[in-house]
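Form P-L/3: holo structure prediction, ligand heme C.
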Amino acid sequence: MAKKINILLLSAAVLLLVLNACRKETPVTGASSPTLPETPYNYVNHNFLIGNNPFFNQPENNQLTNEGATLGRVLFYDTKLSLNNTVACATCHKQQFAFADNTKGSVGFESKVTPRNSPAIINAGMSNGYFWDIRTSTLEEQALMPVKNHVEMGLENLDNLEIKLRKVDYYAPLFEDAFGSAEITHERISMALAQFMRSMVSYRSKYDAGLAIDFANFSALEKMGKDLFFSWEMPCQSCHSGENFNGWGTSAANIGLDDNYADNGMGDLLANQDPAYDGMFKVPSLRNVAVTAPYMHDGRFTTLEQVIDHYDTGVKKHRNLDYRLTVDGGFFFLEGDGGGNGIPIIDPIGGSGSGEPRKLNLTETQKRALVAFMQTLTDYELMRDPKFSNPFTAN
Ligand code: HEC
Ligand code: HEC
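OUTPUT (holo model):
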């Protein structure tokens, strides 16, 4: 008898585990109709980062509206945007990972795997360059590229996309609300997707809360990490600068991951096949970085500790290695009061020309502190905000 109960308990525990595992990974389906709130969610006026922000990259003809972003949300989660109705944008850009993916490469519509790691879509409205090689400069232009991509969604002909969506009954009213008429065009599809992505603003991290109160909410370790990160003795903030920790969104660098890169990033772009750009990739935002593993354009590192180890001792002597990671570029001369409050004068590329990688010689505590600081950049509100969630799963 006792044995039977034990087995029962065990099966119940296993069932619970399975159920929990399922709940974590919400399946993306486009088969049903979306469930949307009576009054649209507020996507427009929710924080200081939007609106007066001079870095908010929003075209005149596609201003963010609640109705536009609502349509964008449905499109973002709809598998009908792929050739065989299996893949949505959200398949590779998952809310619980700050709209990144938790795999090295992401699986597209024919089970093919993307050669690069799916980046988080974070404060994309405050960036001017998209993709790891910065090959596009507006979200409107970017949004339909994955739809056409033969690995990602496979709908190469945009006329077919329009024909397909015109047959889906829930779209006409959503287009009407967003654009004033029910007409479905690929331009409107990209505009709505761009609006939704622009509304995904991350500004509710522990770090943001700390800014207002002199970081009284930080632990000693987190404070130490913050001070290290922002110290000019360290190279981090010279690239991951600005309120998005991404060099304002158009910076790129070679950080010496390899002697020879298999994927040369900007150097491989047809328009600019120039060896001077080999191994250069976009400087990614560090907001939410604790939940966007694996890291780098190819997802080679699985933990933040490994990333820190790379910067500490692992940087390779690539011919395009960014000067900020070399022994020559590691020093910043401060103009001003000399007490660290001046304007940094950065040695031009090459410094004295050795290109020799710099070792940071961090202690174990300093490494832990840097990781702890990066963890304060996580915005849990964003990841559970219903307005960014999957409208195809009843909520
Ligand atoms: C099969 C996986 C997959 C799907 C589906 C997918 N993406 Fe991506 N996405 C990626 C990968 C991988 C990259 C990086 C590609 C590169 O840099 O070359 C990326 C890059 C991006 C970026 C650039 C982010 C940045 O800051 O540079 C945006 C924005 C984006 N995708 C939006 C979308 C939208 C919108 C859709 C749906 C229409 C979509 N993605 C569908 C995998 C995917
Ligand atoms: C020379 C500019 C530069 C400097 C200095 C720099 N980074 Fe980076 N960082 C980059 C670039 C570029 C990438 C992406 C590289 C790639 O994928 O090839 C990156 C990637 C990262 C990533 C992975 C992010 C992701 O989403 O994959 C983390 C974490 C990171 N850097 C933290 C740091 C820290 C901490 C420091 C200081 C110790 C630092 N970086 C210094 C340019 C820089």
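COMMENT: The CA atoms of residues 169 and 245 lie 42 Å apart.
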